[in-house]
Write a structure and sequence with these properties.
heterotrimer, A mainly alpha (357), B alpha/beta (512), C mainly alpha (310), A: 357 residues, mainly alpha, two-stranded antiparallel ribbon, two-stranded antiparallel sheet, 14 helices, 4% strand, C: 310 residues, 13 helices
């Protein structure tokens, strides 16, 4: 009979090994899926890597994919540390983009550095405010945040759709519901071929790491994540801590929104987030909420995404394959986590009697 | 007895990770027998019985019922074999009625008519007092226990396992339970009684099997043994089990609680008009059925609970409405060892250093966390209280044994040299050795002049250790009695709501 | 009056995918599992059902395969959260990402095709004798397609199952306290698998209604967030199958209110009206959460169960 037994918790090395096995199992499962769809999986994988890292241009494109994932994951990790399930990155990106582009559209006469700083700050505020709504509802009414953050994603999306169809519609777009392009003043500059967002991302990795592990507030967030009662016992103001952490979480997501709008799309649009807020939840979870690991995982996912868009042109594989592959990887890693704490044991009935002598 | 044993367990082995919970245990029970499984906390009593009831699967060994070997892979196998277990933590569904709980898990798609009558008849036969239409959430602990027994009887149990059934009962309720157990014995059932209370075991059982550290030590006939012998077998060496009360004159009144009323979340009172005083150099105990307001009382004193009405005066200064932080800022040193060690007092997933930081970091200046003082403190406390841990940092405290966890918590709380010490069930689940160490620590604090509030469920301990005993029933104080003169029976009646003033021969210390 | 009848009638149609998915969600959560993968399972059902309909023109086969597709999605979730005890929120979310990716991948080649005539005929409206003649109620509820009638039957059967049978009692017990159910010899793991899969099948059917009957063609990301509304409706219905009648049609009505108002000459942006279901959901959740005496859902929701946990 097959039974599950608890084992001594795995060491860090074993955990890493188990996760790597999980990723390989996922790639194998995806290979099967590709083979069934009539493609040569090995060829597809090789082209994906080539497509993501094959030239300096492609590498820069991959980095552009990684930047938003990293900043988002950092933000989500802060909330997840507190076991506040912020599924609302998608909406926070949009609202950050919205408030940031308000300044891009209305204050384009400002000097470039001032305008950009203003936009980034507004982006962060937009995301933070949007995240504070569910945080406040949670603190005040104990409303389940995974539901409220989710719902607000769609509210934000409809709001942006409304803006692009009406009040913010580009008059030069021949009736097509889109918003105008940013002026040159409102576009983030490039550093070494990639927009400056990558520097922001790396700085934030260090800042968030220090914040979570070496500050009093970070400590309080961790305590609250472990047990609300302990936090109460230690005299931590639960409401304030939740609001602060979620505010930071939303701010980082909002910041991502305006960075993407300014540096990548050069305009505001309802397709600004386009699912990346959900992907970032995967990368956050995979990285075990650790800031340095986030860089690694987001890098890997950026390669996957960039590679997938390459094989779309090379093989005609729909780009949706990328999300299937990403989800598969998370499935396997979620599953493999089990083996760090438990093991399966095959136990025969005879065995029981024999052992007892 | 020469007949084949009803149940016999042979060479049972069970491990959890690295911990060997059962090490080649042997145990057998006959029909019409009340058999005690005696041992310290952590001796493997519950583990052994969980294997008999199909909850845990043994790693090795065999189980025989009437001589035939059986393999239980789930509770249903065990139930089918006529074994029923009443767990220490009741396995009842709060939102359902008694009847729904009884028929839970039955075969078949639809409810059968006439089951109510059958259940009622069974309850009458064994004199179990259960209202079938009452919701579990509205029941008292005693009623819940009756319901659990009724449930396993209805499932056809002929062997009843009772896991520490008296821990939560008043002496009077315990007597009723014993009557039911005798009734079952008379009906030819076997009863396995898990306990560590010597006097109860001596009173009710026919046979006793002593377990220690996962091993069977000996099976004895109750009539041929003494509590002294049993204790020595349980602990493994001759021990002195007497708890000493430190006799000294009580100091000044440090804390005065006046007319304290606290509401539960749903708005009903958890504490009603509670008044008492705590004196320096004295241990004041609180007795009461589980959930009579003990938790709210502790939390109100510690500043963690909203107070509806009343005052908590510390040397004349009202603390009501103040957060723990504000209380600390006023220079009042109060320590609180909560009932839920890992869920409230400590952070289970963090190491010892961070758990000590929990009390320190708020006094640190600046934005960053300074771990250094906590590292030193951790080493010091580890040394002083002989805490066995693989490391003070990077090793989550939840992986430690219960005794070591409690030592970390107590160590941290006593380290701040409190003037008032509140301890809720500080010895629950600990082995005898650690219990006595903790009693000693409490006496030490008392000697220093600390006002100690001690909440526990074992009345024998309360009577032996404390100076005065405050009894709570349904959130009201039914009396405060002198521990030197009070009896268990008096306290039991007060726990059920009788006022001390109405009881004859009770030495009332204060009226409330 | 005609406007109202036609509005309510359309609300029932628009609410039907929600009805199936919400029922599915209730079975999931009654088994103690918060499944945020409803959206994913719906869209898997939608694409598979539609593909099979195109290939076979057989409505029953399309519905059956849609249910199986949803159940297969649920199987991934069940293995991960029941047996391997993974985090339910993250697993459910991943299932949605997976399902959406899978459906859009599979649906790439059938975008824009419409349902075969045989299917359309199968799902044409049937008037129920006598009942359809009742004023107002008749046209709103009893001049509908067979899929909708199937929904009525399912709601009632689900309610009976949950509240009137031994299995339903056992299931509710698992949602409240799996260890108590286990000790009373309810096979907890089996129950969880069966009800998670059944919940997934219902979600798949909800998706199939969308592609086969409501939209009658395949569109990329056809569910467009409907699954999330269903997750919310489980709460709105307070885990009670009977109340799904009310909640699903109410929210179905909200989702079409904009077009209807415009046809009545009231001009409000559909984009803004589209926010309504999500905002109302938040409002309802807040109201439900405010009352602390009432438990907000099955007590073991989201907590993995391991018998030998100490």
């Amino acid at each position: 009979m097959l039974k599950i037994v608890k084992k001594t918790e795995a060491t860090i090395k074993q955990k890493i090994a188990i996760n790597i096995v999980g990723i390989f199992a996922a790639l194998t499962a995806a290979a099967l899926f590709l083979a069934l769809s009539g493609f040569n999986p090995l060829q597809v994988y090789i082209s994906m890597v080539e497509g993501a890292l094959g030239s300096s241009y492609r590498i820069s494109q991959t980095v552009i994919q990684a930047v938003p994932l990293i900043i988002l994951s950092l933000g989500i990790a802060i909330a997840f540390r507190m076991k506040f399930w912020n599924i609302g990155a998608e909406g926070q990106i949009l609202m950050g983009g919205f408030l940031g582009s308000y300044f891009a559209y209305n204050f384009s006469q400002l000097p470039k550095p001032a305008l950009l700083l203003l936009m980034l700050a507004a982006g962060a505020v937009g995301g933070a405010v949007w995240a504070l709504i569910p945080a406040w509802l949670k603190v005040k009414f104990h409303a389940n945040e995974s539901i409220t953050t989710l719902m607000l994603n769609y509210v934000a999306l409809k709001w942006i759709e409304y803006l692009s169809a009406g009040p913010w519609k580009d008059p030069a777009a021949f009736g097509y519901p889109r918003m105008p392009r940013f002026t040159e003043n409102a576009i983030l500059p490039n550093v070494f071929g990639v927009h400056i967002g990558w520097i922001i991302a790396l700085v934030l990795v260090v800042v968030v790491y220090l914040f979570l592990n070496n500050t009093k507030k970070g400590f309080e967030i961790a305590i609250l994540g472990e047990s609300e009662n302990t936090a109460r016992y230690a005299g931590i103001s639960i409401g304030k801590t939740v609001l602060l952490a979620v505010c930071l979480s939303g701010a980082l997501c909002g910041l991502t929104g305006i960075i993407q709008a300014s540096a990548v799309n050069n305009e505001m649009s309802s397709a600004l987030a386009n699912g990346i807020g959900y992907t970032a939840i995967i990368t956050t979870w995979l990285s075990g909420l650790s800031a340095p690991v986030i860089v690694l995982v987001c890098g890997l996912f950026a390669i996957l995404t960039q590679g997938a868009s390459y094989i779309q042109t090379a093989f005609g594989i729909p780009s949706a394959a990328a999300s299937v592959l990403q989800a598969l990887i998370l499935f396997f890693v979620l599953g493999s986590d089990f083996f760090t704490k438990y093991k399966f044991v095959w136990q025969k009935s005879e065995h029981q009697t024999k052992e007892g002598k | 007895m020469d007949q084949v044993a009803y149940i016999s367990m042979k060479n049972i082995v069970k491990t959890f990770g690295k911990v060997v919970a059962s090490n080649h245990v042997n145990f057998s029970v006959h029909k019409g027998e009340i058999h005690a499984l005696l041992g310290e906390n952590g001796a493997g009593k519950s583990t052994l019985m969980n294997m008999l009831s199909g909850i845990y699967l043994p790693d090795g060994g065999s189980i025989f019922i009437e001589g035939k070997e059986v393999h239980f892979s789930a509770p249903k196998d065990s139930i089918a074999a006529g074994i029923g277990m009443v767990h220490q933590h009741f396995k009842l569904i709060d939102v359902m009625t008694a009847e729904e709980n009884v028929i839970l898990g039955k075969k078949g798609l639809f409810f059968r008519k006439g089951e109510s009558r059958k259940i009622d008849a069974l309850a009458k036969q064994f004199e179990l007092d259960v209202d079938l239409h009452k919701k579990v959430s509205d029941m008292s602990v005693g009623e819940k226990q009756n319901l659990e027994i009724l449930k396993v009887l209805y499932q056809g149990a002929r062997i009843l396992i009772l896991d520490e059934p008296t821990a939560v009962l008043t002496p009077q309720e315990t007597r009723k339970l014993f009557a039911i157990m005798r009734k079952m014995k008379a009906e030819g059932c076997a009863v396995i009684f898990i306990s560590h209370k010597m006097n109860e075991v001596m009173e009710i059982t026919d046979k006793i099997t002593v377990l220690r550290k996962g091993e069977t030590i000996q099976t004895l006939n109750t009539a041929e043994t003494t509590p002294k012998q049993l204790t020595d077998l349980m602990v493994g060496r001759a021990v002195d089990l007497t708890i000493e009360r430190l006799e000294q004159p009580a100091g000044p009144e440090l804390v005065q609680v006046q007319g304290l009323t606290v509401l539960k979340r749903e708005g009903t009172p958890a504490l009603q008009n509670v008044s008492f005083a705590m004196r320096g150099g004295e241990i004041l105990s609180v007795a009461g059925i589980a959930g009579s307001g003990q938790k709210e009382l502790c939390e109100a004193l510690a500043g963690l609970q909203k107070v509806k009405e009343g005052k908590i005066l510390f040397q004349g200064e009202d603390l009501v409405g103040q957060s723990p932080k504000e209380i600390r800022r006023r220079g009042i040193s109060m320590s609180f060892v909560p009932e839920d060690r890992l869920g409230m007092g400590l952070v289970g997933g963090m190491d010892m250093v961070h758990n000590l930081l929990l009390k320190q970091y708020q006094d640190q200046k600046g934005f960053f966390l300074n771990k250094k003082p906590a590292v030193e403190k951790a080493a010091e406390i580890k040394e002083k209280l002989e805490i066995a841990t693989p490391g003070i940092s990077k090793y989550p405290v939840k992986n430690l044994s219960g005794g070591n966890i409690q030592k970390i918590l107590l160590g941290r709380e006593l380290d701040s040299d409190p003037e008032v010490l509140i301890t809720a069930y500080p010895v629950r689940g600990l082995d005898i050795n650690t219990c006595h160490k903790i009693y000693d620590l409490l006496n030490e604090e008392k000697k220093k002049g600390v006002a100690v509030l001690f909440i526990a469920e074992d009345l024998d301990v309360l009577l032996a250790l404390s100076d005065r005993i405050l009894v709570l029933a349904n959130g009201e104080v039914t009396g405060i009695v002198d521990a030197r003169t009070a009896t268990k029976e008096q306290i039991g009646l007060m726990m059920m709501g009788q006022k001390a003033t109405e009881l004859e021969g009770t030495a009332v210390v204060e009226n409330c | 009056m005609d406007w109202w009848i036609s509005f309510f009638s359309a609300a029932v149609v628009a609410g039907t995918p929600l009805l199936f998915a919400t029922l599915g969600g209730i079975f999931n959560e009654r088994a103690g599992h918060m499944n945020l993968g409803v959206e994913g399972m719906m869209i898997m059902g939608a694409v598979v059902g539609f593909s099979v309909a195109l290939a076979t023109s057989n409505a029953v086969a399309a519905m059956l395969t849609a249910a199986i597709a949803g159940a297969l999605g649920a199987l991934i979730y069940a293995v991960l959260t029941v047996t391997l005890r993974a985090n339910q929120v993250v697993t459910g979310l991943t299932l949605t990402i997976f399902g959406t990716g899978f459906a859009n991948f599979l649906g790439q080649s059938i975008v824009g095709q419409s349902t075969p005539a045989a299917i359309k005929a199968f799902f044409s409206n049937i008037s129920i004798p006598v009942l359809s003649q009742i004023p107002v109620l008749g046209p709103v509820f009893f001049q509908k397609d067979i899929f909708i009638y199937f929904g009525y039957v399912l709601v009632i059967l689900s309610g009976l199952y949950l509240y009137k049978t031994q299995i339903g009692l056992n299931l509710r017990a698992i949602g409240e306290n799996p260890s108590a159910a286990d000790a009373a010899s309810v096979p907890v793991t089996l129950y969880k698998y069966v009800h998670l899969l059944w919940g997934g099948a219902l979600c798949g059917l909800g998706g199939a209604y969308l592609s086969l009957v409501y939209v009658q063609s395949w569109q990329t990301s056809i569910t467009a967030g409907m699954g999330w509304i269903a997750v919310a409706l489980v709460i709105f219905s307070t885990w009670n199958p009977y109340k799904v009648f009310l909640s699903a049609y109410l929210f179905g009505g909200l989702s079409i209110l904009g077009f209807r108002l415009q046809s009545a000459g009231i001009h409000i942006s559909q984009h803004l009206l589209d926010m309504a279901p999500y905002l109302v959901t938040i409002l309802v959740l807040v109201v439900l959460s405010m009352d602390e005496r009432k438990s907000a859902g099955p007590k073991s929701l989201g907590i993995p169960y391991f018998r030998e946990e100490r």
